[in-house]
Amino acid sequence: MTVPEDILCRAYELAGDEQDTVLLDLRGIDWGTLTNDLEFYPSDTGGGMQMLVADSEYDLQVLMTDGEAGVPTDAEDFWLALSDGEDELFSMVVRNGVLE
């Protein structure tokens, strides 16, 4: 699996119920449906920061960083968010494999 795939799996292990609830309310789908076959690309966020972004077919974006200012390198330290392009609908921070 790729690092983004590892992060999506780890995120679901840590907060799957909350992710499913948000998505069911918004689009009538679950986390697995949203994240199936996402393609992530790097995006410059300004100030030297970068993140990975994936656009879904459900008009939602999944965003992730290493929890600081860069692209994540593992599923132990990351920030992950769900956005509709304007608002952050869900986010989480994981440090040393633990949800903060």
The coarse overall form would be globular
SSE order: HHEEEEEE
Low-pLDDT segments:
none
The largest sheet, given as strand count, sense and whether it forms a barrel, is: 6 strands, antiparallel
Helix percent band: 25-40%
Number of strands: 6
Beta-strand portion reads 25-35%
Summarize the structure.
By secondary structure, the chain is α+β, with helices and mostly antiparallel strands. The chain has helices at residues 3-27, 31-35, and strands at 41-46, 49-55, 61-65, 78-83, 88-95, 98-99.
Written account of the structure:
By secondary structure, this protein is an alpha+beta fold. It is built from two helices and six strands; from the N terminus they run H-H-E-E-E-E-E-E. It has helices at residues 3-27, 31-35, and strands at residues 41-46, 49-55, 61-65, 78-83, 88-95, 98-99. Strands 1-2-3-4-5-6 form a six-stranded antiparallel β-sheet, covered by helices on one side. A hairpin with a 2-residue loop joins strand 1 and strand 2 (49-55). It starts with a helix and ends with a strand. The model has no long low-confidence stretch (mean pLDDT 95).
Topology record:
Elements: H1 3-27, H2 31-35, E1 41-46, E2 49-55, E3 61-65, E4 78-83, E5 88-95, E6 98-99
Antiparallel strand pairs: 1-2, 2-3, 3-4, 4-5, 5-6
Descriptive labels:
single chain, 100 residues, alpha+beta, 6-stranded antiparallel β-sheet, 30% helix, globular
